[in-house]
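Justification of computing resources. Each target in the renewal requires a structure prediction run like the one illustrated here; the chain below, 759 residues long, is used simply to show the kind of job we budget for.
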Amino acid sequence: MNDKAKETARQAALDYHALPRPGKLEIRATKPLANGRDLSRAYSPGVAEACLEIKADPATAEKYTSRGNLVAVVTNGTAVLGLGNIGALASKPVMEGKAVLFKKFANIDCFDIEVNEPDPEKLADIVTALEPTFGAINLEDIKAPDCFIVEKLCRERMNIPVFHDDQHGTAIVVGAAATNALHCAGKRFEDVKVVSTGGGAAGIACLNMLVKLGVKRENIWLCDIAGLVYEGRAEEMTPQKADFAQVSDLRSLNDVIDGADLFLGLSGPGVLKPEMVAKMAAKPIIFALANPTPEIMPEDARAVAPDAIIATGRSDYPNQVNNVLCFPFNFRGALDVGATTINDEMEIGCVNAIAALARAHSSAEAAAAYQGEDLKFGPDYLIPKPFDPRLLAIVAGAVAKAAMESGVAKRPLPDLAAYKARLDGSVYRSAMIMRPVFDAARATRRRIVFTEGEDERVLRAAHAMIEETHDVPILIGRPEVVAARIEKTGLGMEAGRDFQLVNPENDPRYRDYWGTYHECMARRGVTPDLAKAIMRTNTTAIGAVMVKRDEADSMICGTFGQYLWHLNYINQVIGSDKLNPIGALSLLIHEKGPIFVADTQVFPEPTSEQMASIAIAAARHVRRFGVTPRIALCSHSQFGNLETESAKRMRGAIALLDASPRNFAYEGEMHIDSALDPELRARLLPESRFEGPANVLIFANADAASGVRNTMKTLAGSLEVGPILMGMGNKAHIVTPSITARGLLNIAALAGTPVQTYG
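Resulting structure tokens:
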């Protein structure tokens, strides 16, 4: 990077911290404070009630305050990574960043606390005095050996988790990476020789973790700035280093590196030379974790040991050892069970969970965040990526389980599976509302054909189907392409074993398929030759024919192309007097709850009859999610105040709905704000047909419905489930090109639900 690029990057970093508001944190209220009633409850006199409850039973503090989800990041700024002893104030941007990571990855609230106190015992006094405020303490960037003293004293005096991330967070991630590196190398902890450089807090903690995982202490050779740590050495010694002192005449790193299976570097740049790597064992494992420049650059290590398995602390090389894989989820699990400490069992549970997740297939979300990287388990993918959303439930769940089993949980969870599902729901926003749908899908076994089976999103969705439901995925695609992409993504699926495969270029059922299609279309201008061509090239038509022939129960298409194009072929083959498209219903999940929008795709200008049918169908589908429908017919007109064409159609729909008893609430025509604001609606129409905000919005044209859908997705950050094609008996669904793998899984669960289960 040249000087100009460095300056540009520097200024961009400063602007990030300064604009549009200084810093990276803010405090937000969790309760409304809009009137005198709210004020009397939030403060005087209502606050006294919560105070008295806590005085009577201190355990209720987690119920009535934020303490149970509040962590302090505490430092004195004496050992800031890469910067050294810069002081408490200068360390504040780092601590704010740590707090942001807690919030981003585990939804834990956090205060950064920078303390001007170099004395470790006095610092421990300050930290322990904070116990009433916080549910846990994260010690950060305190120099060794002071950090050992502070942590020890705090752990002894406090009845909440105290975790020095520089030590134990690094150790956990190193432990997970080492577990998988040894797996790749075909070696065991019990047998390996470890050579380590750096006797600071992180280095010592990593060695202690390796011992817990099975490495024999006599097989660990620790070197520091003064050379090998050996018995009788006085220079640069601490009690922590002395635990790893060897009885040996060897004195240098070069002397002890011979035959080493694992090099663990937490020291400085260039410490490990290529000629040293050449002396290591076959398939050497090199963790060169010094930042920003490692003990040896990966390319230099591979020049002499092509089979080396390498990890660094850098993001521009594979296998970045990053503490964010650990600490947010470790604290999440500890806080949620009211753990009094973070013990060895919890740390090892964390190690094993992280390691196991990397050995599983990568998530679609991680693949999207790290486009172009190979996220398949192996020497270049030892640990998961930080943006893998599965980390929260898997790692926090493992920590919570270990806390309960080891007896340090004050609030044991009654149902660990439900807890992990709740955590998934905080990451995958669709998880909670989709639960009844998945439960219904798991009660049966349906054959779901994906017409664009070569798409990576489809492959990931099919894999998730296999794991989470009993449904059978059928993929339409060229075998060689499907196989290559499965191999690339590391999904481990196999055609014929895990899913069915239809080859559009060469399938033994080809004659039957084009014959069925021609039978459907012979009097609509389709010749046998055209039918043959369509059955070779049009995967949507192939999927529809499979459903028609009862070789599949439902089909999913639309990852590319225009919605109505796909609908045309579906209607040609599957459509009938009983099966015809009624409309497309989209579920938008936002911070205030779910909103359903229709018709976003099918009818550009629905008639009154079509709008009434859309409302009836929407009510049926909304109940699939465990939601009681409150349907608003939305218009520019408000309760008859305009005589526009769309308003007349809306009023016609209301009249049709009124003509027969309905088992759902509906109202209209009205503005969107009246639909969503019950107080406003009550002022305009005191005798409204339902109370509370509407949760289903039906529009007079597709422009309005689609516009609201896309606005909510883009500006409000809403997550879409759908579109759900109503009226086709759940035999076909058309997604949109922006769909994610998780979105496809959701649609597959909807498609996997028999119609009779939702009326």
